[in-house]
């Protein structure tokens, strides 16, 4: 980003290619550095926050679920958010989030209301978890968000199981991904990171092989933050959640965008490593009510 432009060269290149720079300029006015009162109130209602970052030790990008009772995420000032608990010891981002100054992107998505808020900045560890100094905060429209209700109480069971790590997807994991209606994606840019959401009807993510996925890039808000980041740095982390059991499937690898006729876009993801953790989230959600925007 330069001056007051909320976009970097990667996002600008995609906006120009698709022909939406003027719309992106208009939508970009919603990006600001501060957490407004309505955003602070929204955060305190959330039982989950997804965080994305690059692990400096491995160079890999990951998206991780952070969970807790509502109130575990809260604004502690106009430019700071605190997260109680942080990432678990077995999470791929545990070491990165333990280092002061790690660039992170976060998304708070509430399936109950189809609302979502994104906040990026730099994280530092605290005695209770994490503090994130915000440098960009904004909300997105409800497109492609499936509606779910949070069922009462934490699911019975102990802490998250020991993560299962592999270099390719198992048959069960491939079926799980192919049936998903939602996933989260983390990308990085020079000095920053972003976490975003992708949704659609089951089957919108295609499993091409044990190490290859693809999905269509549906029309959105014209910002092209994710595709812009990928144009500059292909590192990506994906998070698939089982909304019933709390199992998390985290994937890291690289992603590229293919452009087709009429502005069609398809993202291709090549897997480097998969981490599956049973019981990563203590919450159980209802069956989805699919978004009317889903193609």
Structure commentary:
The protein is mainly beta. The protein has one domain (9-153, 161-277): Electron Transport, Fmn-binding Protein, Chain A (Pnp Oxidase, Chain A), CATH 2.30.110. It contains six helices and 15 strands. The model has no long low-confidence stretch (mean pLDDT 93). Residues 169-257 form the Pyridoxamine 5'-phosphate oxidase N-terminal domain.
Please give a handful of descriptors for the protein shown.
295 residues; mainly beta; Pnp Oxidase, Chain A; eight-stranded antiparallel sheet; seven-stranded antiparallel sheet; 6 helices; 15 strands; globular; Pyridoxamine 5'-phosphate oxidase family protein; Split_barrel_FMN-bd
- Give the overall pLDDT as a whole number: 93
Query: How many structural domains in the coordinates?
Result: 1
Q: Quick one: CATH superfamily?
A: Electron Transport, Fmn-binding Protein, Chain A
Helix content: 10-25%
Tell me the β content.
35-45%
| Rg calc | 18 Å
Low-confidence stretches: none
**What sequence of helices (H) and strands (E) makes up the elements?**
HHHEEEEHEEEEHEEEEHEEE
Largest sheet: 8 strands, antiparallel
The CATH topology annotation reads as Pnp Oxidase, Chain A
In the CATH scheme, the class would be Mainly Beta
Distance between the termini: 33 Å
CATH architecture, please? Answer: Roll
How many DSSP-defined strands? 15
Q: Rough shape?
A: globular
Class based on secondary structure composition and strand pairing: mainly beta
Number of helices: 6
Organism: Streptomyces spectabilis
Pfam families: PNPOx_N
InterPro entries: Pyridox_Oxase_N (IPR011576), Split_barrel_FMN-bd (IPR012349)
Domain Pyridoxamine 5'-phosphate oxidase N-terminal: 169-257
């Amino acid at each position: 980003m330069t001056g007051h432009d909320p976009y970097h060269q990667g996002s600008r290149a995609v906006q120009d290619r698709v022909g939406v720079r003027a719309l992106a300029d208009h939508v970009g006015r919603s990006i600001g550095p501060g957490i407004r009162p309505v955003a602070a109130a929204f955060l305190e209602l959330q039982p989950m926050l997804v965080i994305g970052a690059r692990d400096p030790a491995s160079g890999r990008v990951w998206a991780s679920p952070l969970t807790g009772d509502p109130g575990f995420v809260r604004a502690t000032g106009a430019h700071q958010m605190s997260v109680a608990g942080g990432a678990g010891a077995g999470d791929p981002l545990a070491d990165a989030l333990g280092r002061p100054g790690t660039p992170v992107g976060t998304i708070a998505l509430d399936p109950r209301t189809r609302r979502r808020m994104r906040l990026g900045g730099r994280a530092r560890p605290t005695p209770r978890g994490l503090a994130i100094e915000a440098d960009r905060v904004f909300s997105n429209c409800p497109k492609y968000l499936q509606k779910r209700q949070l069922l009462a109480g934490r699911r019975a069971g102990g802490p998250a199981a020991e993560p299962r790590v592999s270099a390719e997807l198992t048959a069960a994991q491939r079926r799980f991904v192919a049936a998903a209606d939602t996933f989260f994606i983390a990308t990085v840019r020079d000095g920053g990171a972003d976490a975003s959401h992708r949704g659609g009807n089951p089957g919108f993510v295609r499993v091409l092989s044990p190490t290859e996925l693809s999905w269509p890039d549906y029309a959105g808000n014209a910002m092209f933050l994710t595709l812009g980041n990928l144009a500059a740095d292909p590192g990506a982390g994906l998070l698939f959640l089982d909304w019933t059991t709390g199992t998390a499937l985290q994937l890291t690898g690289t992603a590229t965008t293919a452009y087709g006729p009429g502005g069609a876009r398809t993202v291709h993801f090549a897997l480097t490593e998969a981490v599956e953790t049973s019981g990563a989230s203590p919450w159980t959600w209802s069956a989805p009510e699919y978004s009317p925007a889903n193609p």
